[in-house]
């Protein structure tokens, strides 16, 4: 038999890229590729790139510079030919430019075409290079092989499943509608198949992902378009699935069925990422968000009315063109009113081809720095207060893997807080993986909760998924 070839894949950016990277591994497994942890010994290196902000985009070129050296060394030393692929959103947006700036690249493939990787790699061997950044007419999901059971088990008990891709919202700062294309939802039956297969192989928590996940409107088995709320309701009935999450949502697409899902489904975690970007109405209008700060607060209130323990996280952009001190103060005021469990905040980065990139009145860099600092301080304080409130309480933890210290086990709370626990003597940490157990929280270590099991694990406990097997 041929020696397996080694594949190293490095992902940048969002959860969708993490998911896509796994699917690329699945596409290449039948070609004889196995994953390796470093680029240096790889026969194939894939950079799965992010275009959302300039800093993320530029990373590709520095990575490629390093990879070219590794490739030359592999060729000079072991006489091994390393192929280099650029995938993801930078590939989509800057295909030709990548090849011009770094001739060592063999294949450029956009996020909608990676099911063609085996053909593109073969073409590149023949022709020296292959580039595919069209949005193909066929849906890649119909062509992606299912992950092998061993691959699912090795990835652990928590999995992402793409249910929706692309975005039709066209916020004026954002490249996603251009790099990921128009909004497309996968059919309910295909998602259900994926989730059942994951559950059969030990997965206990599924996060449904999409650039605009709550715009989901996939074909249901009844021939109608199902909403995300309805899909969640169906998935909550899959045996073995004990936790469901979804990300990322737009406030305008929160409908009554999604709110009802939070009311009715204990498996749906009370933690929602709901980006608002700014608290200022004029800035929200310039961003083309199509909602006001008050609209956003009303959406938050609807969630809280049915699930009082629900917590939120958000994304913010500071220094959008024309943002005044008063606009920024409105953002701080909104953050104070809502009270987040955490949030991501970014300095505005003009992206080529987006409407905001042509807006005058750029906010000076020093002002952006200073606003980012103030916003992050406020968010950090809210996050610390949220975490501190767990001390002394008993919280449910879904255990994911043995910890680094002997006897320790690591999991996450409903709010994705990491929890580190030393189980009772005589309990093998692995036997708790995949179970939800109550933990009494004693203290915090940075962002992690430390505590002890508040109940004896069931005697018949068996490892549900051997991670890293
Ligand atoms: N500049 C800064 N941040 C941006 N984001 C998207 N586009 C830009 C940009 N041009 C942020 C938004 C989005 C998150 C994924 O990235 O906050 O929600
Ligand atoms: Fe980008 Fe999200 Fe706006 Fe879509 S809704 S354009 S993904 S920020």
From TrEMBL:
One of its GO terms (molecular function) is tRNA-2-methylthio-N(6)-dimethylallyladenosine(37) synthase activity. Keywords: 4Fe-4S, Cytoplasm, Iron, Iron-sulfur, Metal-binding, S-adenosyl-L-methionine, Transferase, tRNA processing. Binds 2 [4Fe-4S] clusters. One cluster is coordinated with 3 cysteines and an exchangeable S-adenosyl-L-methionine. Its cofactor is [4Fe-4S] cluster. [4Fe-4S] cluster 2 binds at residues 167, 171, 174. It comes from the Bacteria. Residues 153-385 form the Radical SAM core domain. Belongs to the methylthiotransferase family. MiaB subfamily. This is tRNA-2-methylthio-N(6)-dimethylallyladenosine synthase. It comes from Rhodopseudomonas palustris.
